[in-house]
């Protein structure tokens, strides 16, 4: 399936962990200001693929990549690419909330200070806006110096999203961001994603097919490192073209 003006485009992407090939000839286009879900059984390459988009896999010894990943017409594997700039543009939210053992304020200012992009006098406005964007400002505006570890799991995950937003990304990667949350907190995070997609492109890895069906605009089904099918979510779940996709979403395997 072709996307008009994709913000991410994988072209003949292959990824190897040593001698093991984890991704096989992936061709995928992801549109701007949409939510794209990556689904498939455990070990199919979902997390590996999403971590390609900000080159987090570079941190693993023995990783080798062939092919191209274009983000806004620039190949992220080009020798000229600035990894720090890439990871500001393409933020990451992980499975379990991972706030730093610092205050709420320090969690949000940490990245700003590392990148030295903003003067300290600007931090206050950025912190406030980031917390407003994840609907935490009213709850935390009087507790900014409280340890982030004292927040609920849902609040911690929202704070981690706010920490990404503070860096002014264009793309947000979410690797099973609700797996540690209860159903009510999951619903709230999904509602937050719908608000965020008005300004950001979101790619979410999820093992929860109901979540993919509820929350995403497009869905990619992966199996053993291969992209089996990619289409609008409503079509994937109502009329998949591939039998492997149908078997997976109907629970025949996986």
Here the CATH topology of the domain at 6-96 and 170-249 equals Rossmann fold
At the first level of CATH, what is the class of the domain at 6-96 and 170-249?
A: Alpha Beta
Contiguous helical run count: 10
Order of helices and strands: EEEHEEHEHHHHEHEHEEHH
Strand order of the largest sheet: 6-7-8-3-9-10
DSSP strand count: 10
Q: How much of the polypeptide forms β-strand, as a percent range? A: 25-35%
Radius of gyration: 18 Å
By CATH, the superfamily of the domain at 6-96 and 170-249 comes out as P-loop containing nucleotide triphosphate hydrolases
Q: What is the global morphology?
A: globular
| Residue-averaged pLDDT | 93
Low-pLDDT residue intervals, each spanning 5 or more residues: none
Alpha-beta classification: alpha/beta
Let me know the largest β-sheet: 6 strands, mixed
Known CATH architecture of the domain at 6-96 and 170-249:
3-Layer(aba) Sandwich
Distance between the termini: 24 Å
Share of helix among residues?
25-40%
Summarize the structure.
The protein has ten helices and ten strands. The protein has 254 residues and is α/β, with parallel strands linked by helices.
Task: Give the tags.
6-stranded mixed beta sheet, 10 helices, Rossmann fold, 254 residues, 4-stranded antiparallel beta sheet, alpha/beta
Describe this structure in words.
This protein has helices spanning about 45-50, 85-90, 105-115, 120-135, 135-140, 155-165, 185-195, 210-215, 235-240, 245-250, and strands at about 5-15, 20-30, 35-40, 65-70, 75, 90-95, 170-175, 200-205, 220-225, 225-230. It is an alpha/beta fold. The protein has a domain at about 5-95 and about 170-250: P-loop containing nucleotide triphosphate hydrolases (Rossmann fold, 3-Layer(aba) Sandwich). The chain has a six-stranded mixed β-sheet with strand order 6-7-8-3-9-10, sandwiched between helices. The chain has a four-stranded antiparallel β-sheet with strand order 2-1-4-5, covered by helices on one side. Strand 9 and strand 10 (about 225-230) form a beta hairpin. The protein starts with 5 loop residues before the first strand and ends in a 5-residue tail after the last helix.
């Amino acid at each position: 399936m072709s996307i008009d003006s994709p913000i991410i485009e994988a072209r003949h992407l292959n990824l190897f962990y040593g001698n093991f090939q984890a991704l096989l000839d992936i061709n995928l286009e992801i549109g701007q200001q949409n939510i794209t879900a990556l689904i498939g059984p455990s070990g199919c390459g979902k997390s590996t693929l999403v971590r390609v988009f900000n080159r987090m896999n570079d941190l693993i010894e023995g990783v080798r990549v062939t092919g191209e990943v274009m983000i806004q017409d620039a190949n992220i594997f080009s020798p000229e690419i600035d990894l720090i700039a890439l990871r500001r543009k393409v933020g990451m939210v992980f499975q379990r909330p991972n706030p730093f053992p610092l205050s709420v304020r320090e969690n949000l200012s940490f990245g700003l200070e590392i990148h030295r992009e903003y003067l300290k006098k600007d931090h206050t406005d950025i912190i406030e806006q980031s917390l407003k964007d994840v609907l935490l400002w009213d709850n935390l505006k009087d507790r900014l110096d409280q340890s982030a570890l004292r927040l609920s799991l849902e609040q911690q995950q929202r704070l981690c999203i706010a920490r990404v937003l503070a860096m002014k990304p264009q793309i947000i990667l979410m690797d099973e961001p609700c797996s540690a949350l209860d159903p009510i907190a999951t619903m709230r995070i999904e509602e937050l994603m719908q608000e965020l997609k008005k300004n950001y492109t979101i790619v979410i890895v999820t093992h929860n097919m109901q979540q993919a069906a509820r929350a995403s605009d497009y869905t990619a089904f992966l199996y053993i490192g291969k992209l089996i099918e990619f289409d609008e979510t409503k079509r994937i779940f109502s009329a998949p073209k591939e039998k492997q996709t149908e078997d997976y979403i109907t629970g025949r395997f996986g």
